[in-house]
Amino acid sequence: MTGEGGSDAPAGSTRLVFDASVAFDAITTHEELCAWSRAYCERVAETDAFAVDLSRVEWEVSTRAKRRAAAVKRPRIDGAVVGEERDWDGDVPTCTVSLTWAAFDAFSEAEWTATLRHELVHVEEFQRFGTTDHGPRFERRAAAVDAPIRVRRFAPAAYVLSCAACEEVVARRYRACKLVRRHDDYVSSCCAANLTVDERE
Ligand SMILES: [Zn+2]
Ligand SMILES: [Zn+2]
Asked: Where is the SprT-like domain (predicted)?
């Protein structure tokens, strides 16, 4: 999956429609962030052999979290220990992956998917053992599924591209990528208007 919609503009002639309806950087609502993240997790759960039951996972967006990019909220299970299998009798308790909006703003797509993989390891441990931590077992599992052991803290997005006509945010970029440097080559998909770039600290 690429993080950028549209293709290369031929030598500054035709202006391309920046249509990123399914692209990470076009996500503008909490619902889209949850749907995108859930779809990503469904894909990796198939290919990476995560032992997770995603039907027992709920999704939410937090606008209040200040440091954690994401977290798995789960009920406290008495006597649960990482490494000791739980027998749920077919009734796996629900947990919630809470996604931090400001982290999504700040992270590249690769950083965000790494965050999701980290949380999936937590979900897997919770569903198996009734609890989860960052212990040696977590570290081994994270390494096996290419997830970071620690998710980095976040900082605000560096570039926000908006539609000049309706001011809708159409993309966020953490670096001065092609879309940022050459935003004059693109028009917004909503209004076919210019894109404006807001640089943030
Ligand atoms: Zn963690
Ligand atoms: Zn617009």
From this structure: 53-147
Q: Are 45 and 54 in contact (CB under 8 A)?
A: yes
Q: How far apart are CA 48 and CA 75, in angstroms?
A: 26
Ligand 2 centre and the CA of 195: distance in Å? 9
Ligand nearest to the CA of 68: 1
Q: If pLDDT is split at 50, 70 and 90, which confidence band does 9 have?
A: very low
What pTM value is reported for the model?
Answer: 0.68
Q: Which domains does the chain have, with CATH numbers?
A: 27-75+92-144 (3.30.2010.10), 156-199 (no CATH)
Question: What distance in angstroms lies between residue 192's CA and the mean position of ligand 2's atoms?
Answer: 7
Counting every residue written for the chain, the total comes to 201
Query: Per residue in 57-109, pLDDT tens?
Result: 999 999 887 778 999 999 999 999 999 999 999 899 999 999 998 888 888 89
**How remote is the CA of residue 20 from the centroid of ligand 2, in Å?**
13
Half-sphere exposure of 168 (CA within 13 A, CB side): 16
Ligand 2 centroid to Cα of residue 194, in Å, is 9
